[in-house]
Write a structure and sequence with these properties.
Helix content is about 30%, strand content about 20%. By secondary structure, it is of the alpha/beta class.
């Protein structure tokens, strides 16, 4: 069995465990991972999503991913595989989420935005960006993570962790009370 086959087999096992054990996190936000690579970033993002209490994660356009970097968190955070971005967008739109995507040229930084409950954060492929055109989704709000060095962008797993931290920090690290 080669490395890719082992990754796929491990992924399928974790997918089954997720269906049994996963529960939404304490904070009302979701992550939409738009066409990321199958290697380590998705697993790392799911690991951070568990640490920062994300409600759910959508993995869009990626057939499987390496579960090893998630360090066991794949069974605790609800995650869904979707073929195209529009499916994820429709799902969260129907639930009343507000969408945020990241662009270094956006007018507002994440520290300037008052993210509402039910925020959906869209993160794209580091090399190719998003699978959709901005003009096709005018409801998406564009924000940036301020950076001061010469690097063009952050690693997508790092960017995801920064925005999850900012969301939970803005609520004083206190999750809302559960509703009955």
């Amino acid at each position: 069995m080669n490395k890719r086959q082992y990754m796929q087999k491990t992924f399928e096992r974790q997918r089954l465990l997720n269906k049994v054990f996963a529960k939404p996190g304490a904070f009302p936000y979701a992550l939409i991972l738009d066409n990321l690579k199958v290697d380590f970033n998705i697993g790392k993002i799911i690991r951070s999503a568990e640490a920062f209490g994300a409600q759910s994660v959508d993995v869009v356009g990626t057939p499987f991913f390496d579960p090893i970097p998630a360090k066991g968190c794949m069974k605790r955070v609800p995650w869904t595989m979707r073929k195209v971005f529009h499916d994820s967008y429709n799902h969260y739109s129907q639930l009343g989420f507000t969408f945020y995507a990241f662009d270094a040229e956006a007018p507002e930084g994440i520290h300037e935005v008052n993210f509402p409950d039910k925020s959906a954060f869209i993160l794209g492929h580091e090399g190719f960006g998003f699978s959709f055109k901005k003009e096709d989704y005018p409801q998406i709000k564009w924000v940036k993570i301020p950076q001061f060095g010469m690097v063009e962008s952050l690693n997508v797993a790092v960017a995801a962790s920064v925005v999850m931290y900012e969301f939970t920090r803005s609520r004083g690290f206190n999750p809302p009370a559960p509703t009955l």
